[in-house]
DNA sequence: ACCTGAACACCGTTCAAGT
DNA sequence: ACCTGAACACCGTTCAAGT
């Protein structure tokens, strides 16, 4: 058992988060528990409550790290693309790729529901919003003259759609399973949606 | 405590499912437990294991009932519409309406993940598939000449998209909260997607 | 035959007591 | 000051024992 002053609070926090990541990656949210994390880092459960308010806060921090990884992947996908449509396709493919490569980490972001009425903290919402902004940037030229709000709404619409396909595919609720087929669906959604924007139908 | 022969196995099953529905409606999947269900119906936990294999099987049956309710709602939405596009919009609105009216029941369908490698039983998948078929029927005239498989894939693409919007909205992960705004997004997705189909872009 | 009640191996969370 | 370890109120699941 680790004793006093072996590690600073910051170090324990880091050790706990990284142990949690390991456990989630292997067994998903179901396989995560305060006791298992504590055991993994050589402390007792009580210690976790000295550095985290509760298990939900710990999970939020793991999710924040996952969001950072995801954002990096999506950002990387936008560097070598030219037209808006192909950029959006590239972001979509990066999203599918991430979800299928890190299914448990990715799913936990959405499985972890905050207590009723509790809002996610500002820093967390920022991490989510900048993901939508990547899509907004690409939609801008396609929606020239439209308000910022309208563009943001369009990005949400499209991206929630892409997310829905991933979510049902990764949880085996669709009858497609490999990344290839999921990509066919997300490509199709993006292509049709973008074509629909081009057709400029009134909504 | 209920004693022998007070109820048949079928009656206990029905009582348990209906107690579970009540608990889920109020407190969501988190608030559901075998012990609470048993207490609600006046039996001990052990009895539940005489009529259900485990809690997962019980939850699957509650979900099956929710799927039946949902299917009825979607079906009802298709009776008084004329064009494919307006029919799909109507089904989408019925879906949003159901998800926002019965958030816990609706969410549990997707929160409940089967054990790894275990497939949902045939009767369950049928209930899911007939929902997609409602959309396929409406897409058919828009995709005249396309293969059944292609039409099925298009229905999945669109409906997963609609689902994604609902899912993120109902779990407060979007910054829209009332059914009105969700509907704006799903309407937009459907309208753009259908317009994209009409534009007949190659995918 | 039907159901109980206690047991087992787990949870998250708290906090008096030890070093 | 830092961390433990035991307690509390919960889980799902099993099964010998009671009626």
Give me the secondary-structure topology.
The structure is a homodimer of 203-residue chains.
Chain A: H1 9-27, H2 34-41, H3 45-51, H4 55-78, H5 84-101, H6 103-111, H7 122-139, H8 148-170, H9 179-198
The structure holds a DNA duplex (19 and 19 nucleotides).
Kindly describe this structure:
Two copies of one chain form a homodimer. With 203 residues, chain A is mostly helical. Chain A folds into two domains: 1-52, Homeodomain-like (Arc Repressor Mutant, subunit A); 64-200, Tetracycline Repressor, domain 2, CATH 1.10.357.10. Chain A is built from nine helices and no strands. Chain A has helices spanning 9-27, 34-41, 45-51, 55-78, 84-101, 103-111, 122-139, 148-170, 179-198. In chain A, helix 1 (9-27) packs across helix 4. Chain A starts with 8 loop residues before the first helix and ends in a 5-residue tail after the last helix. In chain A, 35% of the residues are buried. The A-B interface holds A 110-111, 113-114, 119, 125, 128, 153-154, 156-158, 160-165, 167-169, 171-176, 184-189, 191-199, 201, 203 and B 110-111, 113-114, 119, 125, 128, 153-154, 156-158, 160-165, 167-169, 171-176, 184-189, 191-199, 201, 203. Chain A binds a DNA duplex (19 and 19 nucleotides) through helix 3.
